[in-house]
Amino acid sequence: MRKLMLALAASIAFAGSAFADPVRISVGSYNLNNLPFPVAQGLGLYEKEGLEVTVENFASGGSKTLQALVAGSTDIAVGFYDHTIQMQSQKKDVVAFVQLARNSGLVLAGGKNSSFDPAKPETIKGAKVGITSPGSSSDFFVRYYLQRNGLSADDVSLIGVGSGSAAVAALEQGKVDLLVNYDPAATVIEAKGVGKILIDARSDEGAKAIYGGIYPTSVLYATQSYIDENPETIQKVTNATVKALEWMNSHSAEEIVEKLPKEFISGDRDTYVKAVENAKAIFSKDGRINAEDIEVPLAVLQSFNEKVATAKIDLTKTYTNEFVGKVPNVAAN
After folding, report:
1. Same-domain status, 223 and 258
2. Phi/psi zone of residue 86: left (φ > 0), alpha (ψ -120 to 50 degrees), beta?
């Protein structure tokens, strides 16, 4: 009898996995802007929606994830909203359907020997500036800062250094003079005494000082064709992710870190918990994309990206709140 029950249980488990909805999700990096995605993983929310998720992490930054999406080697990307605008300027329909981070989360940190003074923007000339990767939102951050202050990208050297511990190491070892990055790198830099934060866009006030408004960043996006062909999968992914956002809003940084997959946690755990606490303000509470806020990344891109500046951008085609609007009103356990 026991053997029969074990065999039955095994067959049920096999059947469950056989009928699970497969979806490939790629993430631009394990910076904290993308945190709601691994939280949903850690809470088992994707599995509860009947999804079989295959994850690929591109530690070098969001631009690689975008390339994978456009090439068709992934179904959904965890990346930054501004990439949807870029793609529209290239006549490619990439659509954001859940917002993870409602604000930038970026900081500009200076190494111990940095002579850059934000009060004197011209002092950035000649600096080696670390960004996650060319074409990433950290790249946009630097270019927009330079443009707003009458400077150009030719006045600095932009160097891709990735995110997390690799980015901190680049600043610590003097490979770059300045670093534009996210938490946990931002918190680790100060905790280790590697450098200091010179410009901080994690807060709403900081973002407004840099961009002139709130700058939405991390979202889930997919091509319009994939969304049209797989609306049920998109809805399941949305349900799980929004429940993760709701759960994060009602739990502490310590509780959030407790639920994370181990590979997501970098460096000293206590410092990582502090980084999550520092980043909590940037996360969306409901996954909804704000039509007014997305005007800000458009203005940033138009200031230095010729393709975006000359294209007729229809922001209504870069996002949808349709799926967020259908999420059952049930908090994650």
Report:
1. yes
2. alpha
